[in-house]
Amino acid sequence: MSIPNDGGRSPYDELLSDIEEAVAKFKKSSVDFKPVCGSMTVETAVAYGLPPRMSYTVAEVGAITGMGEYKVRCANQRGELSFIEPDGERGARVLAKEVDRWMEAIA
């Protein structure tokens, strides 16, 4: 059952049109996405809900990249991704620019 509005289109049709327009705008903006700060890692981290930083924990990098902590650690062990280990044992961090470089290398 549809109730036409002044333009002859039902509210449902109006809503559907608005949704389709919003989806089209979103698709275009995601294709044209360019990182504002120059780091795709930082931009992705912010979108993920993390603050913009120069480095992230191994667990955060796993989440940001979608690869998981285990694969990030394996990449480090293979020499593909460098960690910063402040005390030599725990608290390893990865520079955002290093994550950007790594992701470009494996893409």
Short description:
The chain is mainly α and 107 residues long.
Describe this structure as you would to a colleague.
By secondary structure, the protein is mainly alpha-helical. Helices cover 55% and strands 6% of the residues. It has helices spanning 11-31, 40-48, 58-65, 68-77, 96-106; strands spanning 55-57, 93-95. A two-stranded antiparallel sheet has the order 1-2. Helix 2 (40-48) packs across helix 3 and helix 3 packs across helix 4. The radius of gyration is 21 Å and the shape is elongated. The N and C termini lie far apart (50 Å).
Number of beta strands:
2
String of helices and strands? HHEHHEH
- The chain-level structural class is mainly alpha
As residue ranges, the low-confidence spans are: none
Please, what is the oligomeric state?
single chain
What spatial order of strands do you see in the largest sheet? 1-2
